[in-house]
Amino acid sequence: MSAEATNPGNPEAAGRKRGRPRPALRGLRRIGRAALLGPTARDGLPDALEHVAKVHRRHHPDADLDILSKAYQLAESSHRGQLRKSGEPYITHPLAVTLILAELGAETTALTASLLHDTVEDTEVTLDQVRTEFGAEVCYLVDGVTKLEKVDYGAAAEPETFRKMLVATGNDVRVMSIKLADRLHNMRTLGVMRPEKQARIAKVTRDVLIPLAERLGVQALKTELEDLVFAILHPEEYATTRQLVRSYAGRPDPLAAIAGRTRTILADAGIEAEVLVRPRHFVSVHRVLLARGQLTGADLGRLLVLVAEDADCYAVLGELHTCFTPVVSEFKDFIAAPKFNLYQSLHTAVSGEAGEIAETLIRTHQMHRVAEAGVIALGNPYAPTDGADAPEGERADPTRPGWLDRLLEWQRTTPDPDTFWTSLRDDLAQDREITVFCTGAPADGAPDGSAGPAGGAIGLPAGASCVDGAYARHGEAAHCCIGARVNGRLATLGTVLHDGDSLHLLMAPDSAAGPSPEWLDHARTPAARLAIARWLARPPGGGEPPAAPAGQGGERRRAPGHRPTGPDRQAAASGLAVVDLPGAAVRLAGCCTPVPPDTVTGFAVRGGTVTVHRALCPAVARMAAMGRQPVGVRWRGAGKGGHGCRVTLLAEAFSRPHLLADLTEAIAAQGAAVVSAAVEPPHEQLVRHTYTLHLPNAAGLPSLMRAMRQVPGVFDVLRAGRPRPAAAMRP
Fold it and tell me: Is 248 helix (H, G, I), strand (E, B) or coil?
């Protein structure tokens, strides 16, 4: 709560102690003096509001300041007599929060709400009064921030309370923007609190609010919060880092020389650009030191090149790579593929004449504004635009980052607060992202197995697998994913993806497909884990999948822990086999995948289910030896094979390049779909492929096996479960 913040004394001295200039503190000092003198008006504005108005006008020259003046007067009068723990008038806090947001370019509505953000909680002002005097939008923001003030973000936080906080943030990201500015001012004035309380607040800031600031793209707030937390939680490392930075203060700056040469190069090329040396904040310096073991003067900052247009960014890149030696591994294009938090920039590194490496950021002025202020720089997401036809009252935020949409979807579909809280913490802990490019045509149900949107970049956490990519791309439809191609090569769903990989997802042609428990071992993202867990936890008789034919859907549901893959999932609802045991469920065995017109027999298993095996299956002999009584089975439709089915085939061949691709092509040409595939490691130049296939008609099995045998290098194709001769792997 903001009222708990205290002031350690002179804020300017505190800024010098940290080793970072703080120009805004001059404005905060003036605000404090003006607040002590009261709301004396000058030129129609209270003195305390003058600096805020001046900063706000830099970003919004035509802003109407009357509503800010009115909000300040209400806030000052309602907080009058209240003091912060430092002894300052309480009004200095909402003024400081408003100044922070004004410097980041927040629009007038957000500033109005920030001035009033503590009035409803700490004074006699009501939400109805705010709504009457300032409108529904300001009232909504004030109410949202008031709810956030009541949230305990610590280790003992109530997950359900945090869920409510996300709902408020999701409906309008400005709510969290005000909260972050509020926390920054409190962290700046944390010095006189007890050390244990400082540590508690700093840990909460580190674990929850800093990751949220990162995801909202508000780098200016995030970096300062990181340094403030670093100083409290790791004072020795902070002091060492600060002393290291100071030790380079009197030395020549190698980045300054490279910046000067860059200005000359760009001027000669006719590119109008602003070239700056951007110092790293202390946490960034500390991370570089940990990664490299030692620092050079060039590691203490980065070059920042600002231009007018997107095309100029690439022109600058070309000139730098022509006139300097580039470090190829350091190049990243976040303009063509923006990061999940709206960030855009070109990243590169070049080597100077003395061998020093200068990391360089290239972006437009607008990109820089968004990079610093994130969603705050985007203004009012609900403001009307030319030609906008949104229905009245509809709150559709086009600027909301995609991760926030995912969080809102999780909270809607995850009834267990603890599960949601765990997933959220896992998501916030992911600090590095990769970009994967999905390829393929949008052909739902196409025979080639492709489905979903046609291409596009998706952001995933480092270490994510094809399973994560499937759920990020297709949502719940990813239950039907059966395989993938990564960079053009067939890959298992557990394959770990890397930055820049292309991913083509293969989808099952029928709606009965679903994830197996093993997918949870490969899923890194909370979205994938939650979706898989929901599928696996559905009890028999649930409502999945929606496309199941009437009277068959209940057989496709699976109890927790059951692996719904291959023929086990298809058999009970297939209607292929009829058993001589009234009321029993029917399941085709996965070990031998019987299909019409195979000779089959059945055995009753636990749960009142009859498992159907081929007569030649080794499992039949084992059950007979155990004294199990067989159950009579016949194929529906007199065994004519007119039903779709699944079958498992073993292809034995000489190992050669492109064998897997050729076999897959032969299977597709016969109209069969690959449900799963496995390749054993080659042994003495021989290899065995195992395929589980979906056939539209069981009568096509013989021709399918013939087609597979005709693939060069294949010397036999066998049904799974068939007794094998001792020399089965010999041609």
Answer: coil
The 489-491 sheet, strands edge to edge: 456-461, 433-438, 502-507, 481-486, 489-491
356 counts as catalytic: no
Q: Quick check: 555 pLDDT over 50? A: no
Q: Identify the residue whose tokens are 């674990």.
A: 207
Q: What are the residues whose beta carbons fall under 8 Å from the beta carbon of 729, sequence distance 6 or more?
A: 652, 683, 686, 688
365's CB contacts (< 8 A; 6+ apart) are: 306, 307, 308
Helices and strands in the chain, H and E counts: 29, 23
Say how far apart CA 317 and CA 319 lie, in whole Å. Answer: 6
Confirm if 359 and 304 have CB atoms less than 8 A apart: no
> Can you read off the two tokens belonging to residue 558?
């699976």
Residue 374 is classified by DSSP as G
Backbone angles phi, psi at 549, to 5 degrees: -60, 155
Q: Which region among 126-135, 301-310, 453-462 has the lowest average model confidence (pLDDT)?
A: 453-462
Helix/strand/coil (H/E/C) assignment for every residue in 395-436: CCCCCCCHHHHHHHHHHHHCCCHHHHHHHHHHHHHCCCEEEE
The tokens for 231 are: 């100083």
Concerning whether 122 is annotated as a catalytic residue, the answer is yes
Under 8 Å between Cβ of 568 and 588: yes
The neighbour count for residue 351, using CB atoms within 10 Å, is: 15
CA atoms within 13 A on the CB side of 342: 25
Look at residues 122, 385, 119 and name the one whose alpha carbon lies nearest to residue 131: 119
User: Are 466 and 495 in contact, with CB atoms under 8 Å apart?
Assistant: yes
Residue 68 contacts residue 56 (beta carbons within 8 Å): yes
pLDDT value at residue 309: 93
- Has this prediction a pTM greater than 0.90? no
Question: Amino acid identity, residue 60?
Answer: H
Comparing 488 with 399, the larger pLDDT belongs to 488
For residue 381, what are the β-bridge partners? none
Which residue in this structure is represented by tokens 């996965």? 590
Contacts of 271 (CB under 8 A, 6+ apart): 307, 312, 315, 316, 319
Tokens linked to 504: 């083509």
Choose among 542, 648, 647, 522: nearest CA to 595: 647
601 and 635 Cβ atoms separated by less than 8 Å? no
**Catalytic choice (12, 122, 207, 476):** 122
Say which residues have a Cβ less than 8 Å from residue 713's Cβ, sequence separation at least 6. Answer: 653, 654, 655, 656, 659
Nearest to 67 by CA among 43, 44, 90: 44
Pick the most confident of 282-291, 561-570, 612-621, 668-677: 282-291
Tell which residue, 304, 430, 434, 441, has the closest CA to residue 359.
304
Please report, to the nearest 10 degrees, the dihedral formed by the alpha carbons of residues 21, 24, 30, 33 taken in order. -80
Q: Mapped to the 3 state alphabet, what secondary structure does 585-622 carry?
A: EEEECCCCCCCCCCCEEEEEECCCEEEEEECCCHHHHH
Q: Which of 336, 330, 334 is nearest to 351 (CA)?
A: 330
Please give the mean pLDDT across all residues of the chain.
76
Task: Give the other-Cβ count within 10 Å of 427's Cβ.
Answer: 18
The answer for 481, left when phi > 0, alpha when psi is -120 to 50, beta otherwise, is beta
* DSSP 8-state symbol, 69: H
Query: Looking at the chain, how many residues does it have?
Result: 731
What are the CA-CA distances from residue 306 to residues 60, 309, 368 (Å)? 21, 9, 8
Chain segment 477-522, per-residue pLDDT in tens: 888 887 888 988 888 888 999 888 899 988 776 555 678 788 888 8
Task: Compute the distance between CA of residue 465 and CA of residue 621 in angstroms, rounded to an integer.
Answer: 41
Bridge-based pairing state of the strands 433-438 and 456-461: antiparallel
Angle at 148 between CA 143 and CA 153, to 5 degrees: 170
CB 497 within 8 A of CB 473: no
Structure tokens that stand for 447 in this block: 């025979």
Query: What one-letter code names the amino acid at 134?
Result: F
